[in-house]
Amino acid sequence: MADAVPILIGYVDADRRYRFVNRAYETWFGVRREEIEGRSLLEVMGADAYERVRDHVDGALEGHSLTFEGEVPYQAAGLRHVEAKYVPDVAPDGAVLGYYVLVTDISARKRAEAELARLLVRERRRALMLDLGRQLREESEVSAIADKACAVLAAQLGAQRAGYAEVDLAGVSTQIIGEWGGQGVQPLVGPLFVLDDFGPAMSDDLRAGVQVVIDDVREDVRTRHSLEAYVALDIRAFVAVPLVKAGRLVSYLFVCQECARTWGVDEVAFVGDVAELIWAASGRARADAALRQAEETERLLIREVDHRAKNVLAVVQSLVQLTPFVDKRQYVTALSGRIGSLARSHSLLSTTRWTGAVLRALLEQELEAYSVEHESRVVLDGPPVLIRAEAAQSLGLVVHELATNASKYGALSAPGGVLEVRWTWEAGRLIVDWRESGGPPTAAPVRRGFGSTLIQNAGKQLGAQVAHDWRAEGLHCRIELSRGALPHASCGERSTATTSAPPDGGLQDQRVLVVEDEALVAMELARVLALAGAQVVGPAGDVEEALELIESSLIDRAVLDVNLGGRMVTPVAKALAERAIPFVYLTGYQEPGLDDGPVLHKPAAPEALVSALAGRRVERV
């Protein structure tokens, strides 16, 4: 019967020698039973295995029935997980003659139990990850996300500390933004740490995306030369899982223990899963924050655009009502010029997102109509100055009125006239000197016109003092700004700029194609060109119509809007260039990014448009 069962059945006497063993011993130890019976436990089992069960043997020989379960390293049978039952053989007089032993190999069962336990832990952690993901979705701050995830991670692994750190672009410094620590653990959130201080080899592994598993910092070659850093934080063992995105170490998640510890494969994998969950939740939180910020910015921008648009419309309405009417031509010219000044100032401000306008650029735009020839007629000189947004349009109107008066009655009304505009700082004030010379003799006006009134009122809005000195050789106007201007760093400004007046040449008998999708603007362009002697072709409101006119009509030159109902005018410009037909762009874009033709900005003065087109005049064949 003993030989028929697969378990070990034996009898050991009081001298700890086998007296009987069944056939299963032969299978385990690979020898015949005769070679086992009569030998001692130490000889058969080996020293390590004997020491493992020695206490139970002693207890059995003292008369106790015992059960042992555990791994035993048999010298011939290898490491086996066994369950051994010890039953003492007691004589009638109470003497213990030996003991019976039944040994069952439960290694397979234990492996199955361990695998089942591992699967259960994995399922529990999977359920935990789902629940943690739900919790993290409720958090809007990255630090709160990291804190909550680290608390769950430390509790699951029984760790002393867990933390989530982000790494700078250079991969040198790291900052812990969320953590969990047990009682008495020193907080690490906030200050910057140098990654290499914890071991260059360890930090190199992290940068390479390699998980760092350290069972004992004193024994591992990657950390034992940097023990001071770990001792200061009471860290003896740790796992660090890096997150490498786009080839760069961006963050890592770590768990620490104050004593040496062997980390399981599943534990390390769990740390990695939590790290990815934190990264995903953090990205979502940052994206949500950016979206909220963008929505708030958009809301503020819409309010600001609405406010500024209403202000501009109110100013335009005032100009319409206040501009004196002598005759239609005078009224349209004066009003168009003032509205154009507002538009030019607005365009300058839009390029700087309404932080201000560079004074030189503002002056150059207002005096652009006098820049076609005689480069010495207008001289601009002064240091870089930024005019604040709230003052730019008012100053632009002042300069426009001065330039208009100069072109009618002052230096710019005569061929030899010169205008000098110089500015400097005096005791914190911006001083702008407007000096005219070489024109007809000037004298103070008998009565104040609307232009003078506009200059004075705009000056008050600027917080500026505007003084006119009507000298015989020309007007000297001094503008003092106590606010609304500040020094401006600029590397691209010239120390001297010159502009001049347009030539007298018109567009007589020139066939000019007008490409413009705004009907009123197209009508105005056609009117201006007709007054200049041109024959208007079109206007064309879209790309296809413009291309058809180019194919079917004789055209000498063209004026093109850049954006036609959301479509760029590029095909039209290309067709004109292929036929060597000169053209001019007319656009509302401040920086249209075009280099294949002259660019004028809406609303352009009629003289500027005619001059730009006539400047490239060719004889029709």
UniProtKB/TrEMBL annotation:
<dbReference type="InterPro" id="IPR011102">
    <property type="entry name" value="Sig_transdc_His_kinase_HWE"/>
</dbReference>
<dbReference type="InterPro" id="IPR036890">
    <property type="entry name" value="HATPase_C_sf"/>
</dbReference>
<keyword id="KW-0285">Flavoprotein</keyword>
<dbReference type="InterPro" id="IPR000014">
    <property type="entry name" value="PAS"/>
</dbReference>
<keyword id="KW-0288">FMN</keyword>
<keyword id="KW-0597">Phosphoprotein</keyword>
<feature type="domain" description="Response regulatory">
    <location>
        <begin position="511"/>
        <end position="617"/>
    </location>
</feature>
<dbReference type="Pfam" id="PF07536">
    <property type="entry name" value="HWE_HK"/>
</dbReference>
<keyword id="KW-0547">Nucleotide-binding</keyword>
<dbReference type="GO" id="GO:0004673">
    <property type="term" value="F:protein histidine kinase activity"/>
</dbReference>
<dbReference type="InterPro" id="IPR001789">
    <property type="entry name" value="Sig_transdc_resp-reg_receiver"/>
</dbReference>
<dbReference type="InterPro" id="IPR035965">
    <property type="entry name" value="PAS-like_dom_sf"/>
</dbReference>
<dbReference type="InterPro" id="IPR013656">
    <property type="entry name" value="PAS_4"/>
</dbReference>
<dbReference type="Pfam" id="PF08448">
    <property type="entry name" value="PAS_4"/>
</dbReference>
<keyword id="KW-0067">ATP-binding</keyword>
<keyword id="KW-0843">Virulence</keyword>
<feature type="domain" description="PAC">
    <location>
        <begin position="66"/>
        <end position="118"/>
    </location>
</feature>
<feature type="modified residue" description="4-aspartylphosphate">
    <location>
        <position position="561"/>
    </location>
</feature>
<dbReference type="InterPro" id="IPR000700">
    <property type="entry name" value="PAS-assoc_C"/>
</dbReference>
<dbReference type="GO" id="GO:0005524">
    <property type="term" value="F:ATP binding"/>
</dbReference>
<protein>
    <recommendedName>
        <fullName>histidine kinase</fullName>
        <ecNumber>2.7.13.3</ecNumber>
    </recommendedName>
</protein>
<dbReference type="InterPro" id="IPR011006">
    <property type="entry name" value="CheY-like_superfamily"/>
</dbReference>
<feature type="domain" description="PAS">
    <location>
        <begin position="1"/>
        <end position="64"/>
    </location>
</feature>
<keyword id="KW-0808">Transferase</keyword>
<dbReference type="Pfam" id="PF01590">
    <property type="entry name" value="GAF"/>
</dbReference>
<keyword id="KW-0677">Repeat</keyword>
<dbReference type="InterPro" id="IPR003018">
    <property type="entry name" value="GAF"/>
</dbReference>
<dbReference type="InterPro" id="IPR029016">
    <property type="entry name" value="GAF-like_dom_sf"/>
</dbReference>
<keyword id="KW-0418">Kinase</keyword>
<dbReference type="GO" id="GO:0000160">
    <property type="term" value="P:phosphorelay signal transduction system"/>
</dbReference>
